[in-house]
Amino acid sequence: MLYLISMMSTKIAILLLYKILFQHTRSTRYLCYGMMFVVTSSCVIFFFIEAFNCNPVQKTWHALTYTGPAKCFDNTMVQFVIGGFNIATDLIILVMPIPHILSLDIKTKTKFGLLVIFSPGISVFASAIVREVIVVKTLRDFDQSWVNVPETVWL
Q1: How far apart are CA 57 and CA 45, in angstroms?
Q2: CA 135 – CA 122 distance, rounded (Å)
Q3: Integer Cα distance of 21 and 46 in angstroms
Q4: Alpha-carbon distances of 101 from 5, 31, 32, 97, 115, rounded to whole Å
């Protein structure tokens, strides 16, 4: 759940920066507001899905000790959806400044430099994909402490 809040906070901060940097374009402002709404609302929805995953809720919070009958969502599918949504929003946020940078009336060398400044977002996008693969693989295996050792060593 902390992952959701940290991802939302980071994305909102970047979108606020974009809103300030590209404030002269109405469509970009609206896109920033729309993305802020999508990111915030999805975080709230995913938070409640994770918090109240099972019926009764005690099964969610006491999974190992709860012995009664319970009906739960497939946690692997929930994490897959959250990761996919995270990757999609990362990609949108990554490509948002590109049209503005390319339309600037400056030297090509300077445009390239600006694109390089925004390029660390590619590593965020790649990390989100790697994280998604690791999380889904981990959730499908019984021994969750050992299954992701090769990926962790690689990172």
Answers
A1: 16
A2: 20
A3: 30
A4: 30, 16, 16, 6, 7
Percent of the chain at pLDDT above 70? 94
Give the Cα separation of 21 and 9 in Å (integer). Answer: 18
Q: pLDDT tier at 90 (50, 70, 90 boundaries)?
A: very high
Pull the structure tokens for residue 77: 């599918």
pLDDT tens for 50-84 read 888 888 888 877 877 888 888 888 878 888 899 99
Count of positions (residues) in the chain = 155
Question: Rounded to an integer, what distance in angstroms lies between the CA atom of residue 2 and that of residue 128?
Answer: 15
In the block, residue with structure tokens 């939302």: 8
pTM value? 0.81
Quick check: 4 and 40 in contact, CB under 8 A? no
Q: What single letter denotes the amino acid at residue 44?
A: V
Return all residues near 139 (Cβ < 8 A) that are at least 6 apart. 75, 76, 79
72 pairs with which residues across the strands? 54
